[in-house]
Amino acid sequence: MYEWVFNNIKKTPSITIPSAVDVLNAKKGDCNEHTTIYVALARAIGLPSQMLVGLVYRQGAFYYHAWPEVFAGKWIAMDPTLGEFPVDAKYIMLISGDLSKQLIIAKVINNISLEGMEYR
């Protein structure tokens, strides 16, 4: 499923609250669409799954992002939008749930300040 979503859903900017049916019909969208269709497909075959929303570090900055997580003996987060399986430390999850929780993130996302530090 991960590879199918990554390879078959065109990466395009989108300003929608997508439904899985809409994504399946359009076969395009951003991280919200990729995550929505992945979660729906996983649930359709009985895999517990959820949407994670937070930040991803790319090209020298942190950006809003959404990616799915499935339970297959343990929770595994992946990113069928950017092609990461599993995700690594550049992903910072702020909330889990569905797209309706994005309103929580929208209120605070521009006020988040991050500082990197090195640990040895």
The CATH class turns out to be Alpha Beta
Order of helices and strands: HEHEHEEEEH
**Which spans of ≥5 residues are poorly predicted at pLDDT below 50?**
none
Cα gyration radius (Å):
14 Å
User: What proportion of the residues is helical, as a percent range?
Assistant: 25-40%
List descriptors:
120 residues, alpha+beta, C8orf32 fold, four-stranded antiparallel sheet, two-stranded parallel sheet, 4 helices
Fold and architecture overview:
This protein has a single domain, classed as C8orf32 fold (Roll), CATH 3.10.620. It contains four helices and six strands. The protein has helices at 2-8, 20-26, 31-44, 102-108; strands at residues 10-11, 28-29, 49-58, 61-71, 75-77, 91-97. The chain has a four-stranded antiparallel beta sheet. A two-stranded parallel ribbon has the order 1-2. Helix 2 (20-26) crosses helix 3. The mean pLDDT is 87.
